[in-house]
Automatic annotation (TrEMBL), chain A:
It comes from the Bacteria. This is Ion-translocating oxidoreductase complex subunit C. The gene is rnfC. Residues 355-387, 395-424 form the 4Fe-4S ferredoxin-type domain. It is found in: Cell membrane. It comes from Streptohalobacillus salinus. Binds 2 [4Fe-4S] clusters per subunit. HAMAP family: RsxC_RnfC.
UniProtKB/TrEMBL annotation, chain B:
GO terms for biological process: electron transport chain; transmembrane transport. This is Ion-translocating oxidoreductase complex subunit D. Pfam families: NQR2_RnfD_RnfE (PF03116). InterPro entries: NqrB/RnfD, RnfD_bac. The lineage of its organism: Bacteria, Bacillati, Bacillota, Bacilli, Bacillales. The gene is rnfD. The complex is composed of six subunits: RnfA, RnfB, RnfC, RnfD, RnfE and RnfG.
Length: 438, 326
């Protein structure tokens, strides 16, 4: 009875998934004009290899990866390149390729002819060619993750189905409707690496996806489903590794440093599609939801589709939206144009009702320590925030500002409305800037 | 309805916020204080309500007046002054003149809370500091203990029988049931019924307002230290646990946010420290009030505790080296 938890390592946010969690994935309409930002992944933007006026086929390479951490981009329709110019994207203004859809879906040649290669390096190369990046939102090139530096062997594979953001149901639906492809994708990776532990991490609130996966796994005893507490940010990579195999990624390090590989369910499904059929990453499942949306949906969307097309597919709004987010309400990026296209990391577009977008007045800190209680990496957010506001960047760094994972729990929980995460971000910015100047 | 992008807010994440605000938290503490207030009114009569009222009104007045005078934003709407006022009203005996309550709240609000910068900045618990100050300077007026009832006779508190090197409980001490429920017991009005206080404690824990380990470790430590001293005489231990202001202070004062540690391990050390000091004061000295001194000492040590017990950050081997704790 005294098993009280004073350290929660998360916050119990409302889930708000009920409007879309039971809706089957629908194919979204394909628009007349698609927009392909050259930077839709972490790292260097791809290089455009088409010119205005070029005809392209569906699946044709249009942006070539530039450097080690970068990714290929393929057209998701057939048609004509009408423009290559700066436009609004999820990550600010960036160069985009505009393609006019001829609605014929004339396919380009697949990434390989005949049988898929079985050799490990050839398969990783295939994943690289297909432009696969982390589809859970981080958009880190998957082939890089799959090629850890020598000495850093992978013994643990964690398939991240812990969709901890409120409203978000795209991974949930993928696990139910593409369970077979997901499991085949996992098996492809298991054949490539001497992996000892394979876990599919799922939050306890999504029982139907657990059932679907169990059926798909069948008697493959290598793959274990791990049901986790529904608590935000359960799906954060560092916390998953800690909770599942009790290892901590060293500060500033990568999961490979503790022999772990964490990958989102949609990414693994895409790996299967690529290895089985030679299909590059051209579409993904994105949820468009929130109270203001009239008919929220889980949509199978061609990469490059402007958000407005999806809004129309959901019959517009029933009330005034106050915020449009690329991502969920805890970590999502606010955006303000319907012309911004869906990209590889677009798990969800969330609309928040106007009445929820309120700026409560900041009041003095009452030292309740809730920000410490909910921090998934055990920081003292209020002290970092204070240090930043006092101009003491050294202290902010000593307090571990750089270890912050941006989850937003501290600002969420603060009863005094102190912009904790905002201050920590600014402190991080100054620490980075100082390091670069040295 | 069409998307009007001009109406969209673009403030950075997170975009949702908990509805638990500071004023709500303080309201929960007030609700939890209603339990001992009702019990005290039952045992000592309606004068208790007058004492609480005087405490609340004077606390809020002093906070309002100070902030008006200094021309800084008023914080009376966060209800923290109400909590301090209730605590001071409840931590005096029913015979205490009302002016002692006013002196107590003036000291608590003006000197202890507002001078260092108001809510969240005070190093000492305002109510405890006020109580100790009154004890030191106004003893004759506030330590005339009476047992409840029409014939209100002056009595000694139970602690005077078990403190100061005695190792067993003499016959004059009320039995444990009396101590727990507060029947025929002298003392400060709020602390008499441990039963009512525990109801308040449960409320605060269920609401997630206080960290249960602080009152638990505090009381358990007192039991262990008095147990070690008395060769684990259970009646002696339990009499210590149930006597005086221990349970009241463990619930409402040791759990004060501002004057206690921020860090999880700090809270543990703080609570154990409180228990050790309280038990030692009671055993070594011939005066009641060990709890108050123990809390003030641990309050004063809090910055040091927090500095050395900063939580180890994920992915690091050692605790961070921290220079500031506020």
């Amino acid at each position: 009875m005294f098993a009280f938890k004073y350290k929660r390592e998360g916050a119990y946010t409302e889930e708000r998934k009920e409007r879309t969690e039971h809706l089957p994935i629908e194919e979204a309409p394909v628009p007349d004009l698609l927009i392909f930002p050259l930077a839709m992944h972490i790292g260097k933007p791809a290089e455009a290899i088409v010119e205005v006026g070029d005809k392209v086929k569906m699946g044709q390479l249009i942006g070539k990866k530039d450097g080690f951490i970068s990714a290929n981009i393929h057209s998701s329709v057939s048609g004509k390149v009408t423009d290559i110019k700066e436009a609004a994207t999820m990550h600010g203004i960036g160069t985009c390729i505009f393609i006019e859809n001829d609605h014929k879906d004339t396919p380009a040649a697949p990434l390989f002819q005949g049988e898929a290669p079985t050799d490990k390096q050839a398969r990783i190369k295939l994943i690289e060619d297909a432009g696969i990046v982390g589809m859970g939102g981080a958009t880190f090139p998957t082939n890089v993750k799959l090629s850890p530096p020598p000495g850093k062997t992978i013994d643990t594979l964690i398939i991240n189905g812990a969709e901890c953001e409120a409203y978000s149901t795209s991974d949930h639906r993928v696990m139910i409707e593409y369970a077979d492809e997901l499991v085949k994708g996992i098996q492809i990776l298991l054949d490539l690496y001497p992996i000892k532990y394979t876990y599919v991490a799922i939050e306890s609130n999504v029982h139907d996806s657990i059932e679907a996966l169990e059926a798909a796994i069948g008697d493959d005893s290598r793959i274990k489903i791990k049901e986790l507490e529904t608590i935000y940010p359960q799906g954060a990579e560092k916390r998953l590794i800690k909770n599942l195999v009790d290892r901590e990624v060293p500060s500033g390090g990568l999961p490979a440093d503790v022999h772990a590989l964490v990958s989102n369910v949609s990414t693994i499904r895409q790996v299967y599609q690529t290895i089985a059929y030679g299909t590059p990453l051209m579409s993904r499942v994105t949820t468009l939801t929130g109270e203001p949306v009239k008919n929220p949906k889980n949509l199978l969307v061609r990469i490059g589709t402007p958000i407005q097309t999806l809004i129309d597919a959901c019959d517009g709004f029933q009330s005034k939206p106050g915020k449009m987010l690329h991502g969920g309400p805890m970590m999502g990026k606010p955006i303000n144009s319907g012309q911004i296209p869906i990209t590889k990391g677009s798990t969800i577009i969330t609309f928040l009702p106007k009445e929820e977008v309120v700026a409560d007045e900041r009041t003095p800190c009452i030292k309740c320590a809730e920000c410490l209680n909910v921090c998934p990496v055990s920081l003292q957010p209020i002290l970092i925030s204070n240090a930043y506001e006092q101009g003491d960047i050294d202290e902010a760094e000593r307090l571990g500002a750089m270890d912050c994972i941006d989850c937003g729990n501290c600002s969420f929980i603060c009863p005094s409305n102190i912009p904790l995460l905002e201050n920590i971000r600014k402190a991080k910015g100054e620490i980075k800037a100082r390091k670069e100047n040295k | 309805m069409k998307l009007n992008t001009a109406e969209l807010s673009t403030t950075a994440s997170p975009h949702l916020f908990s509805r638990r605000k500071s004023d709500w938290i303080m309201q929960q503490v007030i609700i939890a204080l209603v339990f001992p207030t009702i019990a005290a009114t039952y045992f000592f009569g309606f004068r208790v309500l007058l004492m609480v009222l005087v405490g609340v009104v004077s606390s809020v007045f002093f906070e309002y007046a100070y902030q008006k005078y200094r021309n800084i934003p008023s914080t009376i709407s966060d209800y923290s002054a109400v909590v301090t006022g209730m605590l001071i009203g409840l931590s005096l005996p029913v015979t205490a003149p009302l002016w002692t309550i006013v002196i107590g709240t003036a000291f608590a609000i003006l000197i202890i809370k507002q001078l260092p910068g108001g809510i969240g900045r005070n190093a000492l618990n305002p109510a405890v500091a006020a109580r100790v100050m009154l004890k030191v300077f106004f003893t004759p007026w506030i330590t005339d203990w009476v047992t409840p009832g029409a014939d209100a006779v002056s009595t000694a508190t139970p602690l005077e029988y078990i403190g100061h090197f005695s190792k067993s409980v003499s016959a004059e001490v009320p039995n444990l049931m009396q101590l727990f429920f507060g029947f025929e017991l002298g003392g400060n009005v709020g602390e008499t019924s441990k039963f009512a206080i525990i109801l308040g404690l449960i409320y605060l824990v269920v609401r997630g307002i206080i960290n249960f380990k602080i009152p638990l470790l505090y009381v358990v430590t007192v039991a262990v230290v008095t147990g070690l001293y008395s060769s684990f005489d259970l009646t002696y231990m339990m009499t210590h646990v149930l006597s005086g202001t221990l349970i009241f202070a463990a619930t409402y004062m040791a759990t004060d946010y501002s004057s206690g540690p921020l860090t999880p391990d700090g809270k543990t050390l703080f609570a154990i420290g409180l228990g050790v000091l309280t038990a030692l004061f009671r055993i070594l000295f011939n005066f009641p009030g060990g709890v108050g001194f123990a809390i003030l000492i641990m309050n004063a040590l809090t910055p040091v505790i927090d500095r050395y017990l900063a939580p180890r950050i994920y992915g690091h081997k050692k605790r961070p080296k921290v220079l500031k704790t506020t």
